[in-house]
Specification:
By secondary structure, this protein is α/β, with parallel strands linked by helices. About 45% of the residues lie in helices and about 15% in strands. The protein has 6 helices and 5 strands. Helix 6 (about 100-110) links the parallel strand 4 (about 90-95) and strand 5 (about 120). The longest helix has 19 residues, at about 1-20.
């Protein structure tokens, strides 16, 4: 009985770990390089309007869909889907902290048919972005 319990606990831990690994992240230094090199990509910004005005990246697709939980939030993302399907460029999701809202966006875009290999989340989001000079509106 104990062996079965240990096996179940180990399987649960492995499953939980793999769930955490279901997202692709780009660290700030790599994303900075992508910006500087002019990499073709779609930058999907889900920040609320006030935060977007304070700091965002040039060329970002402003969706104001944070936290991407409600049908209304998801409808805001629907407006950019044609642009995302029109190319095979990578998609970088920008949210306030790179957490739940970004994961919700990743999941929703994947559900809508965007290849998950193309979708990246900026680690630590805009609040953790250390290269302020590359963000529009930053002070």
């Amino acid at each position: 009985m104990r062996r079965i319990l240990v096996t179940v606990v180990l399987l649960f831990c492995c499953a939980t770990t793999s769930l955490a690994d279901d997202y692709n992240y780009v660290d700030p230094a790599q994303f900075k390089l992508w910006l500087e090199l002019g990499k073709d990509m779609a930058i999907v910004d889900i920040q609320v309007p006030e935060e977007f005005q304070q700091h965002h990246f040039k060329g970002s697709l402003e969706t104001n869909s944070y936290p991407v939980k409600s049908a209304v939030d998801k409808q805001k993302l629907d407006t950019i889907l044609p642009r995302l399907f029109a190319s095979q460029n990578d998609v970088v999701v920008i949210c306030p902290r790179g957490g739940g809202g970004a994961k919700n966006t990743f999941d929703y875009l994947k559900e809508k048919g965007i290849d998950e290999k193309r979708i990246f989340i900026l680690e630590k989001g805009m609040q953790g972005w250390p290269y302020k000079e590359l963000a529009v509106g930053s002070k």
